[in-house]
# Entry
Amino acid sequence: MEGILTNPEVLAINSASRDNRQLWIWPRSDLHVAWGARETTGNAQFLALFNLEDAPAVVKVDLAEQGFGERARVRDLWRRADLGILENEIAPLLAPHACALYRLQS
# Structure
């Protein structure tokens, strides 16, 4: 896996995204966080998930509820790997204090 400062797909979010926002914190103890943004060109969106727990955890996002549509083609930007088309939700198991970063396209 490339570092954050050398991964061109991750770096592109800095200059090619808009409407950057926190989507939610869950549960109320602030241990899971989701962030979203839209691509400046095209219809793709970005999604970052954070596990702030001291243990592994599934951090689940309902795609339609968060405005991503019911199905999305998903790319893992950290790993630079296509995950295929996901329906209804994305629910990665994240290590303690880990994050995931995705590009979603309808």
